[in-house]
Amino acid sequence: MSIVQVRIELPTYAHSFLVSISSDANVLQLKQEISKSCAGAPRVDGQRIIWRGRYLSDSESLESLWKSPDESRIVHLSVHPSAWTASPPTHHKEPLPNFSQPAPAPAHLPSPTPTISLPPQAARSQPVTPQPSQSPNHLAYVAAKHRKALSVLMQRPLNLDDASQSDEARTEAIQLVERNGYTWPPILDEPYPPPEAGGVRYEVAVIDGQRYLNLQDPTTKPTPAQLHALNVLSYTLALLKLPTQAPPPTNTTHSQPVELPPHINALLQQMGLPHLNAIPNQHPIVEPNAGNANVVIEAREIQMRPLILPLVMLMLRTVLLLYFVAPARKPVFGILILVWVLYEIWRPIRNALARLQRAAPADRQDQQNAAGAGVGNPPQGANPAQPNAAVPGPQPVPAPGADIVDAAAILDTLANYDIQEEESALTNGGPEPGLGRKAAAFVTLLLSTVHPAIWNRRRALLRRREGRIRTEANTMEAQDQGEDEAQNNRRAETRRELLAQHARRPLWVQNYIARVVREDWIDDSD
């Protein structure tokens, strides 16, 4: 038996730590050690150990997880929020750049290995110094602060140019930041804390042709100077992306009002077109044959192709039926064909009338708008002796298709036949239907469900009701599962209520429920 170290990763709180445990221990013993070593002392029953994407049971041995002693022993820990007996590890998130206030200094670095992207360098004399994408004349001061912060994280000395640290460079950088709508962050002007031994250390790493800073040892904690450098980088990374030039002005186009020619509504009225909205000094021209003109316009609006094409197809189908069926020898078939032909003829006519009814309100609205344009100056020929003459108001317009029977309502009524009475019997009970009611329901449903839409609606209602019945039956027969006493008590209470309700039902309703549960009637038409 030997002592091994297992690395515990707690991603939720960005925290990691090492646990020393015997190599032949199991997962339960590992949880007990975690409860002793982890900040917050999570309870054992609230811990979940994850290894390679799966939860580990308490009885699994650590030897079965890592066969070779050279393998890295790393597991992930998930803790239920109610399992913490003390304050959990502090979770620090990287603050968003806020130029109005300095960002708070984090207590320690996150345990996953962070990398900081470096732009490609043009000069090899300073391999770790990032070059800003903007002109150094404007952001030289910010770029110098950026390079200084990187050198502190890499623990390398850096000699800065005096010109980049001058007051002129700082003034230009402040003006550029303020031109872009931000406030100068005062943390860039604060001095660094005195250097200390130790701390984190970053090295340059090339990944996919790009240069990054790689953290060498995630277990170490940064010094106060390095914490200050991280806060400086949180601002400089955003400031170095600011544009140095103001955006070009946007060209705006101003539209000029177009003056309409005089008597425009008169010309439109002569052409049979609707009037425009109210225009000053424009009056509709009333012609003596205005009524006949309106009749011609309305007749011209009727579309003949949607009316004639169905009639032609109906004629062809009728001729085909008459070829195979002799109406003279079989009058019943002749009557059926006649009824069908009349129905097919009426349907396109009904659709055309509905379109006309929908178009009539729009025409009347246009006429009222045209009449409203001449209220201030009445047209010539008007009777001035009647100043208080009543102006006819808009007449009520019938709803489009109001005379058309709602087919969907009829289908729903036939599909819901006797459904409410059956639901009432299932809920409140009642006497068993008599033979006459059963016969009437049988004949009605036999004839109405020939229509596919009625059959589909009826089938959906029955399936919904039988699904609810099977759910209640399964609940009454279910047993207690799990160790949660509160849930078991709720299930037992629900089961008692359903059993009491089932016992109050009449015998014929209970037989129906038993037949549904046995699945004696199954619709396999799908």
UniProtKB/TrEMBL annotation:
Residues 85-136, 364-398 are annotated as: Disordered. GO terms for cellular component: membrane. GO terms for biological process: endoplasmic reticulum unfolded protein response. It comes from the Eukaryota. Residues 114-136, 367-392 have a biased composition (Low complexity). The chain crosses the membrane at residues 307-326, 332-349. Residues 103-113 have a biased composition (Pro residues). This is Ubiquitin-like domain-containing protein. It comes from Tetrapyrgos nigripes.
